[in-house]
């Protein structure tokens, strides 16, 4: 089953300083659509956590953006599970359309089913859940590679995780990371160039009171690569991010 297209209106508080929909808010729209998809298939996420001791955690996501909505626009988001392969990884796609029905954003994401008792990923086949899949539908390839750092990075920002960063799973919500990544860019970089793609690899959960150093690698003229590492233990990589832009970086 695909979700019926969920309508979202882009309001003032959804936008950045340039009146574009924040990437983090878009990811929250994705989460709301995913929860609706689970409910449509007969699964209640809160019940999964409180009664079954399971949670679903996103491990990677990649977005391709042809148009980022602005304040006042209505958008329609559909979501579906397209595959579980290998059996510990579920792939879910999102399609975002404007009011005229044009597909403006496509995204694919991978998810893990995690047992809350031991915090380990479990095979979906060993769970009580049987999800409907649509392998014939795909907006992006279900392959999100690990990012290989090139060159020497610079620490450009340190985030001290606090209450407002933490979600129901007691760690930093995945939507927060895009805000962190964009905070490493200058206003001039964001003003002059439009975001055309973003990839986030969630490597290790970030818990309350952790300090995360955001390290920016040289990257290319069209792309920026950011790693978030534990400030006290820099060998621990919490996440990787890659941003793509419509124009080259002027240096």
Describe this structure in words.
With 251 residues, this protein is of the alpha+beta class. The chain has four helices and eleven strands, in the order E-H-H-E-E-E-E-E-E-H-H-E-E-E-E. The chain has helices spanning 23-40, 45-50, 174-183, 187-192, and strands at residues 6-9, 54-65, 74-84, 90-97, 103-115, 120-122, 154-160, 195-202, 211-217, 223-230, 237-245. Strands 1, 2, 3, 4, 5, 6, 7, 8, 9, 10 and 11 form an eleven-stranded antiparallel sheet that branches. A hairpin with a 5-residue loop joins strand 4 and strand 5 (103-115). The longest helix is centred in the N-terminal third of the chain and has 18 residues, at 23-40. The protein starts with 5 loop residues before the first strand and ends in a 6-residue tail after the last strand.
Q: Helices and strands in order, then pairings?
A:
Elements: E1 6-9, H1 23-40, H2 45-50, E2 54-65, E3 74-84, E4 90-97, E5 103-115, E6 120-122, E7 154-160, H3 174-183, H4 187-192, E8 195-202, E9 211-217, E10 223-230, E11 237-245
Antiparallel strand pairs: 1-3, 2-5, 2-8, 3-4, 4-5, 5-6, 7-9, 8-11, 9-10, 10-11
């Amino acid at each position: 089953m695909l979700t019926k297209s969920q309508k979202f209106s882009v309001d003032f508080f959804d936008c950045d300083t340039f009146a574009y929909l924040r990437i983090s808010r878009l990811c929250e729209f994705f989460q709301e659509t995913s929860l609706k998809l689970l409910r449509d298939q007969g699964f209640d996420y809160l019940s999964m956590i409180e009664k079954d001791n399971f949670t679903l955690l996103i491990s990677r996501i990649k977005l391709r953006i042809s148009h980022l909505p602005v304040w006042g626009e209505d958008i329609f988001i559909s979501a579906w599970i397209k595959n579980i392969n290998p059996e510990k990884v579920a792939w879910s796609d999102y399609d975002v359309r404007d009011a005229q029905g044009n597909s403006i954003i496509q995204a694919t994401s991978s998810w893990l089913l995690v047992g809350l008792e031991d915090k380990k990923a479990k095979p979906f086949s060993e769970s009580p859940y049987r999800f409907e899949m649509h392998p014939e539908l795909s907006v992006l390839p279900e392959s999100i590679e690990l990012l290989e750092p090139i060159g020497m990075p610079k620490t450009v920002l340190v985030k001290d995780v606090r209450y407002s960063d933490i979600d129901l799973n007691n760690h930093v919500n995945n939507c927060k990371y895009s805000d962190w990544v964009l905070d490493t860019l200058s206003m001039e970089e964001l003003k002059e160039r439009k975001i055309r793609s973003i990839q986030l690899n969630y490597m290790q959960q970030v818990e309350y009171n952790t300090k995360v150093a955001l390290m920016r690698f040289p990257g290319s003229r069209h792309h920026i690569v950011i790693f978030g590492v534990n400030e006290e233990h820099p060998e621990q990589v919490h996440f990787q991010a890659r941003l793509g832009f419509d124009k080259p970086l002027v240096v």
